[in-house]
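Aim 2 progress update. The chain analyzed this quarter is reproduced below.
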Amino acid sequence: MKFKSTLILACGLAALAGYYFFMELPAETKRFEAMEQASKVLPFDPAKIQGIRLKHKDQTLEVSRQKDDWTMDAPVKTLADSDAIRGFLSRLDAIKYSRIVEEAADDLSAFGLDAPSLTIELERSDADALVLRVGDDAPMNNGLYLSTGTPQVYLARVGREELAKTAFDLRDKTPLRFEVDSITAVTLEREGEVVNLVKQGEDWLLKQEATLKADPGEVQNYLNHVRFLKIKSFVEEAPSDLQAYGLKTPYLRLALRAGKDGTPLYFDLGKEDGASGRHARTSDADRVFRISQADAGRMTRHAASFLDKTLFRGKIETTSRIEIQSGDDAILLSRDAENKSPWRIESPIQSGADPTTLNSLLADLREARVHEFLQTLENDPALYGLNAPEKRLKVQIENKEWSLALGRADGQGAFYAQREGEDAVFTLSKDWVEKLFRSLYSLRDKKIVHFETDKVSRIQIEYPDSAFEMERSGDEWNLKQPEVLSNIKAFLGNEVLWTLKTMEFESVSETKAEDALFEKPAARIALWGANGEMVETLLLAKSDLPERMLAKVESEPGLRFELKKMYFDELPRDGKKFRNQ
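Predicted structure tokens:
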């Protein structure tokens, strides 16, 4: 019984919920929408409006719909700003009255509605035209008096500037219409300088005395700016004297071409108009207009500003050789890119390279950006220190070599630079120079000594007060000093070798100031091979820092390595440690 009662109750609740959502809620929504419509001064469907007429006291403005766009018919025949008109219609439809001031006003002059400053007429496709008359401002800045052609007078909270649109407000302010992606050639002429940009596939080329690679992003941004900049004001619709505006011989002429046979579009800039802007004209209309100084400045570009600012373009993963030259010194690194072998330093030392540092170098090379192009074509290399570059970076990618020459500092935190095979001179920031031109020991594997563990047959460790010598016999190690012990703990010899093999330096010094510390070293470690040949000799000395030690290796006598003291502490000091008991 209990289950049956619960089921009946659940069914009843479901029925009530269904009734509310399918009957009451739609009815309530309709009542709310009806109230909203009833409170509107001029309810209409913006999609049904075919024409708008705004009658000001001194001018009449007319626009008409042409499918999805709008055309201005008066006071001038031209394109209209469709977005602005859609916004205007939306605002008109949304106007609500705060109260009805008069149901049947006898004297409309009291509200400024007998000869209104503005009358708005809306032509509809499915009904008679609508009229909205705009009267005086209400006292206390409380809104405007409005009427719709009936005796009723409304008070509505709406700004006069929202309704009193001018021809400029609703006119299309796009100087030159074109599809950015269709443009295949750009020519800029200004005061004797000509910039020619030509699209080739997905790339853009700068064609001057030499052909250089342009930055596609820069060209795209420039075209987008020209396409979407806005006219600041209209000066003259049919000028009889272009010379008066500096447009007979333009200060700048931009020519855009779509396809090989497309008719070029022109955008001319003339005289400055005070501080407010610059006169301009386009080939698709006779009018003279004004654009802002900022927009004119962004249109005025030199050839170098379009050049590709990506320093290096190439497949980093296929890099097989890197050479870093600084004066007479050169660091050469190589790897088998095809087999993805580790990087090695080939010169001036033979060593493994630090993989983290090499990956960082390659990543920086991929991300590096030119700071600024100085000129398109280099005239005097000596002027920039490029006749005898201070530094040079060479990168081998598959069968091609890319090379960067670095000249003198420019005095502003950057260096003059030039890519081999290109004429453009540019600056590279100090930060990028430091990231790309690494030192030898920042690239070197951080291991202090390099050897193959199974090739070492004898280990000698000398301390100021004691000495230990171990010799390998097969898989076992025997102690030779300070006493002869055979069959010592098997892992001890390998443990010493492991400690030496894992030693990593924190920093490297090439000064001789620390040499005196090695005259009486804290430890001298020598490694021999099976045939008695010396593998490596390592000296450890105390540092001024309590948790640091200094190290020198015989194979690199000019260097002093700083390392953590923990490596020294891991070396055997007590003979008891060797006893296998």
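The chain has a mean pLDDT of 89. Residues 132 and 159 are 14 Å apart (CA to CA). These observations will guide the mutagenesis experiments scheduled for the next reporting period.
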